[in-house]
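Priority: medium. Attachment 1 of 2:
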């Protein structure tokens, strides 16, 4: 991971909830600078830290925010949406049959041909070779048991899982609000 002292490309701002925790770790809650400026003018966020870059109009000048906090707290305990990304995150981006990190797909534990539904409780991450090998069989018939039982995760679990995957580049002004073990390079 690289810690930047210059603004990252596009100068996004880290968005914190009203409790000063990131809205999301993976993907990291970043807004483009244009959205941040709009939120500042609509009085929806407080600016916590800024870049050195300035934007201005004929009558106004403002340093671009690098970290903002929402004024209204957004509850984080809503059920997570069932998406391919959230499924892969739940399963730590690894095949639940062999542990591979390559060529990931999702697999119906109880095959659709046998009435299996596309739900949190019936889908696991699988690499393409394992998915093909299992085919339209149940795990028992295929002799392939998933490492973990498929279940709906909480938003808190997905956030904790996301903390295992820090992005490759972070701005130094964001570090006080992120909770990864980050070693600064000299």
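Attachment 2 of 2:
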């Amino acid at each position: 991971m690289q810690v930047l002292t210059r603004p990252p490309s596009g100068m996004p701002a880290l968005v914190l909830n009203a409790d000063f925790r990131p809205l999301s770790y993976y993907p990291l809650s970043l807004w483009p600078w244009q959205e941040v400026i709009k939120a500042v003018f609509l009085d929806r966020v407080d600016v916590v830290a800024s870049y050195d870059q300035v934007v201005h109009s004929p009558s106004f000048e403002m340093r671009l925010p690098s970290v903002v906090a929402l004024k209204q707290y957004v509850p984080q305990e809503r059920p997570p949406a069932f998406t391919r990304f959230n499924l892969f995150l739940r399963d730590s981006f690894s095949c639940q049959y062999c542990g591979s990190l390559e060529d990931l797909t999702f697999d119906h534990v109880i095959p659709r041909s046998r009435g299996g539904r596309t739900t949190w409780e019936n889908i696991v991450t699988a690499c393409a070779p394992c998915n093909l090998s299992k085919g339209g069989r149940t795990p028992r018939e295929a002799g392939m048991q998933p490492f973990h039982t498929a279940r709906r995760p909480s938003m808190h679990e997905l956030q904790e899982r996301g903390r295992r995957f820090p992005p490759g580049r972070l701005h130094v002004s964001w570090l006080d609000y992120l909770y990864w073990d980050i070693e600064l390079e000299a």
